[in-house]
Amino acid sequence: MKIALLHYSFWPEMGGVEQVMRDQAAMLRREGHEVKVVCGKGAHPGDDYPVDVVPELAPDFPLNTQVRAVLERGQADQNFSKYRSALVEALKKALEGVELTLVHNVFTMHHNLALTRALHDIAPHHRMVAWTHDLVATNTDYALPNPTQPPWNLMRTSCPNVVYVAASEFRAEEMRTHLKPEIAPQVVPNPVDPLRLFGLTAEMRESYASLDLPARDFVFLLPAAAMPSKNIDFALEVVKQLHAADRNPLVLITAPPVSGSAAAERYGSFLRQSLPTELAHHVVFVNDFFPVGDAALRDLYLLADCLIFPSRREGFGLPIVEAARFRLPVWCQDVPAYQALEESGAAFLLKDISQLGDAVGWLEQQSIFLQQRRCRELFDPGVVYRDYYEPLLAAFGAGVQRS
Fold first, then answer.
1. Cα 297 from Cα 252, distance rounded (Å)
2. ∠ at Cα 189 (188, 190), nearest 5°?
3. CA atoms within 13 A on the CB side of 360
């Protein structure tokens, strides 16, 4: 489907709406839609969609500046109609060939009332969604001069030809109460794209979807070479038992090559060859796919929600300190770095597999772990698209598309 995202401004502006639009555009592109951003001020962020800068939409467009100066005094003049007509023509040109436009905030915020009026004008002829993050009708940060008179009354007037979406149930309730004629907005949470938020490397971007992180109960990171002293087979036993208990774990093992160690080579081969088929989806030896340098290691820490470090012998135990800097809870053996952080309460000494139940209970009481897991379950772009966007777009005749 050909979809436009419209707002006054876009990246590199750093407002919340601009960030949501980036994540929304990237998500829709990954799902196979043809996407473009239409804005008055912005630039191309280097993502896989075009950005159409329409000067008439810009906050500093001369006619917009003149109109707003008059409106802020509680008046309106002929420039409003002139600007409205110019916007209708600019929108028709910018949205030519577009099948659906997602309009961010313009229907419910007063920053460009002539643009709001122009969108009302073209709504009978162009399919639009009023994507609502904010509502000036309930925002005490702003005071409209004449809220019951045109054009200010647009902020309490719903457009009958437009589908309304709210970013939260709280906002939806405000819209039901304050917009007339009364509407029934759909609630669609904002996706938060880890690819953008974390600045993931190209290798990790390519691998992200295959990890199926939103479905995981546990995402463990084990940053260690495949050497016998690292006790990686213990971590695999943890994964095996969690899987047998109908949990969905993932362990990401960096496993860089160790030159000159026949024992490491044999141990690495043993781990891979002895891995049961049913665990193949739950264990990833990352270095088998790409080298884990500094940037990729950072990505792994950001995507994981627990460090598992069962090494038997360590002079220090660097990953435990690294995990602390990334705010990760830790399952580990009794190594020196743990002893240095022992009073933090952020690590569980998992010395024997019989303790696994206690370790899981401890982990699932850690607020940072629960927050990480809950966010990927609810706000990962793949989840949000499947649960919310697919039915929304299907109502406009868009088939389910997967890239």
1. 11
2. 120
3. 17
pTM for this entry: 0.91
How many C-beta atoms lie closer than 10 Å to residue 114's C-beta? 26
Q: Which tokens belong to 217? A: 């109960």
Q: How many domains does the chain have?
A: 2
pLDDT in tens, the chain (403 residues): 999 999 999 999 989 999 999 999 999 999 999 999 999 999 999 889 999 999 999 999 999 999 999 999 999 899 999 999 999 999 999 999 999 999 999 999 999 999 999 999 999 999 999 999 999 999 989 989 999 999 999 999 999 999 999 999 999 999 999 999 999 999 999 999 999 999 999 999 999 999 999 999 999 999 999 999 999 999 999 999 999 999 999 999 999 988 888 888 999 999 999 999 999 999 999 999 999 999 999 999 999 999 999 998 888 999 999 999 999 999 999 888 888 887 778 899 999 999 999 999 999 999 999 999 999 999 999 999 999 999 999 999 865 444 3
CA 39 distance to own-chain centroid: 21
Q: In which domain, by residue range, is 262 found?
A: 196-378
**CB-CB contact of 22 with 45 (8 Å):** yes
Same-domain status, 360 and 277? yes
Contacts of residue 144, Cβ cutoff 8 Å, sequence gap at least 6: 110, 136, 152, 155
List the CATH number of the domain containing 126.
3.40.50.2000
Name 326's Cβ contacts closer than 8 Å, sequence gap at least 6: 301, 302
Residue 216 lies in a domain: yes
Residues 328 and 181 in one domain: no
